[in-house]
Automatic annotation (TrEMBL):
It comes from the Eukaryota. Keywords: Lipid-binding, Signal, Transport. The keyword Kinase does not apply. GO terms for molecular function: lipid binding. It holds the Pfam family LTP_2. The keyword ATP-binding does not apply. It comes from Hibiscus syriacus (Rose of Sharon). Residues 1-25 form the signal peptide. GO terms for biological process: lipid transport. Residues 11-91 form the Bifunctional inhibitor/plant lipid transfer protein/seed storage helical domain. Transmembrane segments: none annotated. This is Bifunctional inhibitor/plant lipid transfer protein/seed storage helical domain-containing protein.
Length: 95
């Protein structure tokens, strides 16, 4: 078998493998309080729980929207959200 055939087979195999791999879905950002519920008990504590940090990492792409959520503003203030994310080791861009 020629080198070209081997390379072609390898490329086809890679395409098949990667096309069948599941892509992680982006989190839905439509209910800030529901998504941040693991953090409700951690609000203003010295350190957030592992569950809160896991949810924070999972939903980092939603944070700018959360900052604008009236429901979330009733429970968390912007500074506390940023501090919680920071304590969980999550950085997100300024909104």
């Amino acid at each position: 078998m020629s080198k070209v055939s081997i390379v072609l087979c390898a490329v086809v195999l890679l395409v098949v493998v990667f096309s069948s791999a599941e892509v992680a879905a982006a989190p839905k950002c439509d209910n800030a309080l529901d998504l941040m519920s693991p953090c409700l008990n951690d609000y203003k504590k010295p350190a957030p729980s592992a569950a809160c940090c896991a949810k924070t990492k999972e939903h980092v792409s939603c944070f700018c929207g959360y900052m604008k959520s009236e429901d979330l503003k009733r429970v968390f203030d912007r500074i506390e959200i940023i501090k919680m994310a920071d304590m969980c080791g999550v950085e997100f861009s300024s909104c």
